[in-house]
Each structure stands twice: as structure tokens, then as C-alpha cells.
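S.,

Sequence below, as promised.
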Amino acid sequence: MKSSITAQPFKTTARLTKTTSDVWSMVNAAAGKSPVQPIANLGQGFYGYNPPNYVIDAAKKALDRVDCNQYAPTKGRPSLKKAVANAYSPFFGHDIDPEKEVVITTGANEGMLSALMAFVEPGDEVIVFEPFFDQYKCNIQLAGATIIYVPLTPPLNGATEKASSAEWTLDVQKLVDAITPNTRMMIINSPYVFRFVSSRIHLAKFYTAYRHNPIGKIFSRTELEEIAKLCVEHHIIILSDEVYDRLYYVPYTRIATLSPEVANLTLTVGSVGKAFYATGWRVGYLIGPEHLITHVCTAHTWICYATPGPFQEAAAVGFNEAESRGFWEESKRDMKAKMDRFNEIWDELGLPYTDPQGGYFVLVNTSKVKIPEDYRFPSDIAAQSRDYRLSWFFINEFGVAAIPPTGQFSSVMYVVPILSRVPDFYSTENKHLAENYLRFAVCKPNDVLDLAKERLRGLSKYINAAKTTC
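The prediction came back faster than expected:
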């Protein structure tokens, strides 16, 4: 009997809708087809070099151990939990219990998803600060919550003058206005409650922070105190995403250290990949009070059960020896030097940019760059925001890849229906704030940065050109 096979594709769940490509796929595809090769890829924030040798050697040794090649304990290998606890106890001002207050996750992103799955459910609202890391919106929607956006205000003279990332400011009143009885979480980027209700664990609200991707802002102590005050008042959990906590160029405050009340509500997220140039290892960790970590661990167990053992052992050695080897200071010094090295081109061209306080991204204001009005874009790119067209222009004319911050691409690989037109760093209603910016990642070898600088000198003929279209 001849079987009948339908040509109709399976219907996806309400959480996902299938289309063709996301902002990252667009940039990478365009880079692969650019007539200017090799591409100086300053788009995605992966490192262009290996972890330090002592960490690589530790990973190789771990691969020879039978126990490291089997399932790791779901909360993490004891060696890494202890190493994380020892590394962070001085910052937190007390001894962190590695068995009760640390969980190892499969990357920082999976750790944040585990926190969301543990404490957020349909009907809850999550506040995020714009611009935001694009995975936030995906993880929030997977948990079934609704996103509420609170934009940071760009520097007043950002189109004409270089500005510190500190000048991207928070309007506290907008944050106050965004909180409703349904708020369960706030997500912020900077080096950032929990209570029992009836007979079950219930998190009234949830808040996140780290060194801001993509602008590199470190929230001031005053800003953090304003945020923390609201979190305590409204019972908001703080998920402090501090994955760039080893790459800071100005002093900063960890929100968990503000008071015992704030610490009781805070989950701090860290990343081995960001700390040791090993983003492909997918090892992250969360630190927090036992009453929060316990439930994150449960969700983590259900999502992926365990994190690769050999990389955990290598990370443990990384933390244990980093201070004595001077690695943290060397890492910070080297990244700041790369930032300064690359930003010379914007000073040379007279293009203003946001000087980051931490991390390895730089936002450049391209208002002065004028694209010829007869320049031909593919139809799908021509219909997008100015920053998208600029990204395409930079890739095809100069062989330099950068990310458009609005991320508004009409065909997205996988997005939630409610978010299907939402940009990667901005909501639709606020994307106009970033249409003149491009984001560059400087965590690349110096020869790649120098190649990009040399090519970008070609921008000079497009700056303030008379005949324009965008």
C-alpha cells in the first residue's frame, strides 16, 4: 500500500514561529558573500584568540580523567563550585557556601533561563532596560512572561561628540511607572525578590544586571540603590548578569553587596567563557542565597541535567590560579588597549562613539555617514532601519562586519509570535533611539583590528557627502 506523505510542514508551538534568518544570520551571510575578503568580523562577541595556556593545559589533563568524561553532578563539579566561592567571597564580604549558594550551568544564558523557568510563569511581567542582550527576550518568552521595556536615554550630544557610556542614563520615574501588580522581574545590564506566599514559593518580581551589552555602561552606586530600593519595596528578584565582571575600566558596585535585604533577593550570573576567552565551552554559574539557588538548580536539572566536566575542571584551575598569575589585571589591561587601539579610527574620522566603562563592545554614531542615494541594496535590506543598511554597506564596501543595534529584520529565524517584529536590542517603539548606531566587538586579534581600521578610512569620502539618501 502506497503511503501518503503530506507536504504540509508541522505546526510550531506558540513559543516559536519559523521564518528565515535573524540579525546574526544576516550579518554573517552578508560577510560570507562580501566582495571584500577576508572579512574583519567585529560583529559577534566571540573572542578571536584562545584561553590562557594554563587553562588550556588544565582542560587537556581533565580529558584524561575518567570521572571528568562522565556526567558531572547536576549542581556542578565540587572543584569549580569551591573555586567560584573562593573567588567571589572577598567581593561579597562573606564566605559563600559552595554547596548551597553556587550552581554551575551550561553557559550563563542557560543559567538565566533556569532562573526564569524557576520563578517566572505566564501572566507575569518582566522589565528589561534597553538596549538589552537579545537572548533575554527569547528566554522570557519561553518562560511565558510578558516583556515591559524601559529605555536608557542616549547621550544628549551623542551624534556630535564622544560620550562615556555612563551618559546613557536611567529615568527612574519611567522605571517606577513600568512596575505593575503583575511585574515579576526586571532585567538590567551592569556589574547587579523572593518571598513565601501562601504555601508555595512565589517570586513577586525579578531584576537583572551586568555591564551593559551593547553600550558598556556600569550602573553607578546611586542608580543601583534606586533600583534596589524598588526591588525591595515591590518584592522584585534581582538577576544580576555580571558576565563581564572581570572587564571593567572604572570602579563599580555589585548590587548584591548593597545590603542584606538586597542580597537576599539577588542571583548573580557569571561566565567562564567571558572570563577566560572560552565562549565555546558553555560554562556559567549563579551565586545567591540557598532559597533561590535551590530552585534554579531544579530547573537546570530539567533543562540539561549537567555541564561538561572537563571544562569545569579547567575553569576551576583558571579561577584558582588567575590572581597569582596576574591574569585578571592582564586581561583587563589588554582589552582596554584593544578598545583604545580600535577607537583611534573614529577619532581620526570625526565620528562620535560611546566610550565603554566595561566589556568589549563600542557603539559608534554614524549620523555623519551619508550613503549615495543611488546605492543599491537587496530589497529585504532596503526595507529595514538605517542601521541595517549601514551594516550591509560597511560589510560590502569595506569588508568590516558590525551589528545593527535595532536588530529589526523582517525575517527572523526563530522568534516568538508576540515578539516577531521586536529588534534584538530594542523594542519597536524605541528602536529610533539607535538607528544611527553600529556595534563593534573589539575582542579580536590586533591584526584584525588594524585591518578594520585601515579599511574604515575609506569612510571619509562618505562623511557629509552632499548627495544622500539615508
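Residues 191-212, 408-423 have pLDDT under 50 and may be disordered.

Coffee later?
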